Amino acid sequence: MSRIGVIGTGHIAAPMVHFLASRGHRITVSARNARIAAALRAELGVAIADPQQVIDAADILLLCLRPDMAEPVLAPLRFRAGQKIVSVMAGVSAARLSSLCAPAGDLVQTIPLGFLRHGGCPLAAFGNTALLADLFGPENPVVPVPHEAALNAHFAICAMVPGLLDLMNSGADWLTRQTGDADSAEFYTSQLMAGFLGAMDRGRAGRLAAERDALATDGTLSLQMTTALREGGAHETLLAALSAIGARLEAAR
């Protein structure tokens, strides 16, 4: 069991706390989001303290602040040598993180999503990947990356998730207009995607294209859809958005 502190208790931190609490860790959270912190205390029995007390009570710290809040919140705080740091703050570079958390120097940066709580969330990681695996593996596989630029590229891919959800929502809205049943339309759309991806072999490169091509054969509705999306510029728009997000993250380093 480890003593874990969480600075910045929001929608990213809460699933991490749930997962870690299920493993019996002793957890103290900051009250930056008082509603979420109170809910975690009521459900899991975690302690709530101000940020410096969180640091003082912990050997491992999860930094889950919005990137623009990292400097004003962390700069006044005092860390200890030997403390381990897990940062989920996109755009806060390893160099800046090391400066803010000195003399603590054992760092790892990663990208969790909310379903980490239930397992199956791949964690791209730069730094002490063994620390991340000890905390969240094997249920959530750690994907080491060779440098910070690669981590930022994975952050950009994570930004695809709400974009894809937005497209699925548009599809569900279209289906609702055809059927008049919004609940069934959203269930069908989300379950269709979740079921397909859940059953797909994800163990080797090229599987996404292979699955696409197996569906989008000559004369099929699937080919009509993929062709329309390509001709409409959907792929170019996606790649442009990924490049812009990547450039934004690199500029923040």
Short structural summary:
The protein has 253 residues and is α/β, with parallel strands linked by helices. The protein has helices at residues 13-22, 34-44, 51-56, 67-74, 94-101, 129-136, 148-158, 160-179, 182-199, 207-215, 221-231, 234-251, and strands spanning 3-7, 26-30, 47-49, 60-63, 84-87, 106-110, 123-127, 142-144. Helix content is 55%, strand content 13%.
Give the topology.
Blueprint: E1 3-7, H1 13-22, E2 26-30, H2 34-44, E3 47-49, H3 51-56, E4 60-63, H4 67-74, E5 84-87, H5 94-101, E6 106-110, E7 123-127, H6 129-136, E8 142-144, H7 148-158, H8 160-179, H9 182-199, H10 207-215, H11 221-231, H12 234-251
Domain Pyrroline-5-carboxylate reductase catalytic N-terminal: 3-91
Protein name: NAD(P)-binding domain-containing protein
InterPro entries: P5C_Rdtase_cat_N
For the record, what is the CATH homologous superfamily label of the largest domain? Answer: NAD(P)-binding Rossmann-like Domain
General shape:
globular
Count of individual helical segments:
12
Can you tell me the number of structural domains?
2
Biggest pleated-sheet summary: 8 strands, mixed
Instruction: Note the beta-strand portion.
Output: 5-15%
Radius of gyration from CA coordinates: 21 Å
Low-confidence parts, pLDDT < 50 over ≥5 residues?
none
- Reading the helices and strands in chain order gives EHEHEHEHEHEEHEHHHHHH
- Share of residues in helices: 40-55%
Measured distance between first and last alpha carbons:
34 Å
Structure description:
The chain contains 12 helices and 8 strands. The longest helix has 20 residues, at 160-179. α1 runs parallel beside α2 (34-44) and α7 (148-158) packs across α12 (234-251). 55% of the residues lie in helices and 13% in strands. The model has no long low-confidence stretch (mean pLDDT 94). It is globular. Strands 3-2-1-4-5-6-7-8 form an 8-stranded mixed β-sheet, sandwiched between helices. β1, α1 (13-22) and β2 (26-30) form a beta-alpha-beta unit. By secondary structure, it is of the alpha/beta class. The chain folds into 2 domains: 3-145, NAD(P)-binding Rossmann-like Domain (Rossmann fold); 160-251, ProC C-terminal domain-like fold (Orthogonal Bundle), CATH 1.10.3730.
